[in-house]
Amino acid sequence: MKFVAQRVNRAALSVNDLPVSEIGYGLVVYFGVKAGDTEKQAEQCMRKLAALRIFEDDAGKMNLSVKDVGGEILFVSQFTLYGDCGRGNRPSFTEAERPERANALYAYAADLLRDLGVPVKKGVFGADMRIVQENCGPVTIVYEA
Fold first, then answer.
1. Angle between helices 99-115 and 39-51 in degrees, nearest 10
2. CATH number of 2-144
3. What is the structure's pLDDT at 12?
């Protein structure tokens, strides 16, 4: 299980030119599920994500979490995080979990974040999404459990 978190001032997600989700200050999180990943790994990842101190305090130090700053998360499922480009120029996605299981873990992880007190808006699993985001910093964190 892997996530890429990017600190943003705002972000919006649409599908077929129709708005789906929009957030203000917070994180856009791209979330990938590897074949064999478990709920326990999702719990570990979401606890880490909710507690990441990547927002600046009054002294300008990255010392605050998304919860501390009252931020939101735009949570986007992205199987391409498990694209293997080691051989040739076309990525192989054999490490990515099957869609049914990946979607279940994606929904579970989003619920975990909400239970941790973080407002979450989601993308549309399996859809061709368009995401417009204004990065802040930029700050990008990659984490794998």
1. 40
2. 3.50.80.10
3. 98
Instruction: Quote the distance between the C-alpha of residue 19 and its chain's center.
Output: 18
Q: From the candidates 78, 125, 133, 140, which is the catalytic residue? A: 78
Give the mean pLDDT of the chain: 97
Banded model confidence at residue 59, pLDDT cuts 50, 70, 90: very high
Q: 38 an active-site residue? A: no
Strands 26-32 and 2-15 come out as antiparallel
Average pLDDT of the segment spanning 70-74:
98
Given 3, 41, 79, 140, the catalytic residue? 79
**Do you know the residue count of the chain?**
145
Indicate if 80 belongs to the active site: yes
Please tell me the predicted confidence (pLDDT) of residue 81: 97
Q: Among this protein's residues, is 94 annotated catalytic? A: no
Token look-up 């790994």 returns 41
Query: What residues does each domain of the chain span?
Result: 2-144
**Cis status of the peptide bond prior to 138, with omega within 30 of 0:** yes
